[in-house]
Amino acid sequence: MRIFMLGWEFPPFISGGLGTACYGLTKAMDQLGMKVTFVLPKAVDSKYTTHVKLLSPGSHMSQATSYEKEELKNVKFRSLNSILQPYSTPKTYQNQIEEILRQKKILFGDSNILSNQSADSTDYSHDMYTEIHRYAAMAAELSIDEDFDIIHAHDWMTYPAGIAVAALSKKPLVIHVHSTEFDRSGEHVNQEIYDIERLGMERADKIIAVSYFTRNIIISRYGISGDKVEVVYNGVERIGNWSNLTDTGIKKEEKIVLFLGRITMQKGPEYFLLAAKKVLEVMNDVKFVMAGSGDLIHKTIEMAAQLGIGHKVLFTGFLRGDDVKKIYKMADIYVMPSVSEPFGIAPLEALDHDVPVIISKQSGVSEVLMHALKVDFWDVNEIANKIIAVLKYPPLQMTLRSHGNFEVRKLRWVDAAAKCAKIYEETLAPAGV
Amino acid sequence: MSSICFYFQVHQPYRLRHYTVFDTNSDYFDDYKNASICRKVANKCYLPANRLLLDVIKQYEGKFRISYSITGTLLEQLEHYAPEVLSTFDALAQTGCVEFLAETYYHSLSFLYSRNEFTEQIQKHSEAIKYYFGQTPKVFRNTELIYNNDLAQYIESLGLFDAIISEGADHILGYRSPNFVYKPTGCQNLKLLLKNYSLSDDIAFRFSNRDWAQWPLTADKFAHWVNNVNGNGNVVNLFMDYETFGEHQWEDTGIFNFMRHLPEEILKHPDNNFKTPSEVVQAYDAVGTIDIPHIISWADTERDLSAWLGNAMQSNAIHELYRIENSVKNTLDERLVSDWRKLQTSDHFYYMCTKYFSDGDVHKYFNPYDSPYESYINFMNVLDNMQRRYLELGNNAEKNCLEFNDPKQSPKTHKDNKIKIVETRNKKISSFQITDETVNS
To answer: For the stretch B388-421, what's the b/e string if a residue is b when 16 or more beta carbons lie within 10 angstroms of its beta carbon?
Structure first.
C-alpha cells in the first residue's frame, strides 16, 4: 500500500505542532515499512528567486521538486512551490506576499516589477484561498504520475488538494484534523475556512481526529456522522539523551513557571498572566517565562505591565533547538492554559524533559495524560493553586515528574502509525464488502 | 467442628471539601458530600443489610451470629445524617448475637506514627461503642488489618483485649491454614484470628464477576466449600467491608438473597455453627505461634502499606500531619484537635495512591478526587491552614501561661502550675472522647 500524503513542514522548519505531528507520524510509518509519497508546500528561497512569477497564472505550474531523506527509506518527498504555511491567516498571508514583493523591488529595482505587478495583481491575488486552490491544482497534476492507494491530508489548507486528488484518482480520501477553526478563532470563525473544513470532512471517506475533544467538535459543529470519525492520538518523539546539555550557565535563585507555545487567543496567554498575578500574591521568588510569538504578543506584554507584574514576566520570543532544551531545564513547571487545544504535543515534550505539567481540561492531551495536573483554562484561581502547590511541595513535583516521564514513553508514534494503517485498511475494504 | 466467624468493617471518612491555598476559613469538610454519601450508603447498604441480618438472627434464634467494627467517624456521621441506621445497629446489639470490635476511632494509621495518639483513639472508640451499644469491645482490629508482632504485643500490654485480628496472607502463613486460632509471637494470652481471604473474597469481590468460573455463587455452593474445612480447621473467618452488601455488590446481583439463605445451608451440616470473635477465642485454643515481624495489611495483592504510604506525597503528608501532634494538642482547642484527628483517617492517604492509577481500577472507584495529585494538594492546603491556626492559638495560649509564670512565684509553685497545665490538657483531651456531638442525642 502506498499513501499519498499531503503534509507540512519538516524539521528544522517547524513553527508548531502540525509539523511535529506530520514528521513523527511519517517517520513511524517509514519504520513500519509503509510506503509514503509526502507532498508539501515549499517556498522557493523566497528572497531571491522568481517566486512571484511562479505564482502568477499562466506560468508553469508543476514545478515539483523530488527528493529523498536518508533516514526515511520508504518515503518519497515531492515539494510544491507555494508559500502556504500552517497557522496562516488571510491577513498574515497577505503580509507575507507584500514582504516578498518588497524584497523583489529592492533586488530588481522598482520599475521592472511595478509594471508587471500593476497589470497582474488582481490575478495572482493576494488572497490565500486562491493559493490554496492553486496548490490543489498542482497537487492534482502531480498525482497523475504517482501510484498510490489512499490519500491522507493534514489540516484544512490541504483539504481542497485532497479532494482534487481523490476526484482525479478515484482513490479514497482520509483527512487528519489537527485543529479546527473553532479552536483557532473561538466563536468568531472565518466562514470561508469553515466551509473548506466542512467540505473536506464531508468529502472524506474517513476522518482522523487527534482526540475525542476534537471528534466532538467535528460531530457537533460540522454535522459529521460519528461513525466516520476515528481518534488517533499523537505520539511524542523522545529526545532521549538530552543530558549532554551539561551547563546552561544559569544560576537559579528563583522558581520558573513556563508558558511555551504560540501567543495567540487559542493558547490562553491571558489566563497564564492572571494566574501569575495570583501566585505572586502568595509567593515572591517566582519568575514567569513566556516563550513563543504570535499575534497577541504585544497585547500580552501590555497586560503584564498593567497587572503590575511586568518585572516578574519574561518574554523570550520564539525558541527552537537547544534554546527549547535550556528553557525546559530551567523550568519547575510547565503550564498550558489553552482555551481549546485539539491535542497539545508541547506538554508531552515538557514531561519528556522532566518538567511536570499543568494542562487545560479543554485539550486532547488531557485525555491521554493521567500524571498531569488538570484545570479549566478560565479557572485562574485553581491554576494558581496548583502552581503554588508544585513550587511549594517537592514531593508533588517529584511524583509528577517520575510518573509523567514514564507515562510519556507509552505514547509512541508507531502506535499512531499502526492505527492509521488499520484505518486505511478499513477504508479500502469496508466491512461487509 | 467448623465455626463461621463473620466480621464486617463499617466505615466512612470525613471527605475534605475543595480547599485551595487561597482559602482561609477553617471549614475543611464537605458537609454536603458527606451527608449525601452517608444517606446513599445508608439506603443502599446499611439499612437493608441491617434489617436483613436482624431478620435472620431472629429466625435462627441465636444460632446466627455476627460482628461489626464501626469507626467513630461513621458513628458521628450516622448520628447527623442517618440516625435510623444507628437504631438498627442498636437493635442488632440488643439481640445478644452481635459483637462490636475495637479499633482506632478515626480509622487511622496512628499505630505507625504515635503510640499516644493510637491509645487515645482506641479508648475513645471503646467508649463510643459502650455508649451506643452497651458493649465493651474485647477484640481489636487495626485499620486496614495493618499488623505486626509489635502491634500485638502493644495491644496485649493495654490489658483491654483478648484477641486481635489480621490478614491470613499467604506469605506469612506458608503451609499453615488461616482456619485455626493462633498466638502472636511475644504475647502471653492474646489470641490471633486470621482472615480466610479466599472465601472472604469470594463474597466480597468475586460474587458478581461473570468471568469467574464459579459464577453464580449460591448459598449451597458456598456452604459446601465451608464444609470442606471440617476436619482440617476450627474456624472460617469471613472478614469484609460491610459495604459489600448493596454498595460494592449491588442488590440486583442477588447478594442479599445469598446472605438470607446462607445460614440455612451452613447449618444443614450438624458440625457447623456461627460464632463471634470473642466466642471463637473462648472455644478454641491457639494451635501455634505466628511470627510477623514485618507489617502486613489486607490491601491489594501486595498486602502491605503501599496503598497508603507508597509514594513520596503520601509519606510527606502523613509525616507532616503527625509532626504537629503536640502543637495541636497543646492548644487545648477542641475543634482544632478534632479536625486534626479527622485528617488521620487512612482514606485521605489512599486517595493519594499512584499505584495502578493509570489503569483506573478499584482505587478509582473509592476516590472522590480526579487524581492523587489533587488529593495531595487539597490535603496539604488544609494542613497549612491548620498550622496557621495552632500558631495563632499558640500565641494566645502563651499569654494564658504567663499568668502562671508570675516571676514572684517560688520555683515550687512554678512547677506545680506547670503540672496543673499538663493535667488540664490531658483532662480536656480525654473529655473529647464523647464530644458534645455524640452526647446531645
So the answer is: ebbeebeeebeeeeeeeeeeeeeeeeeeebeeeb
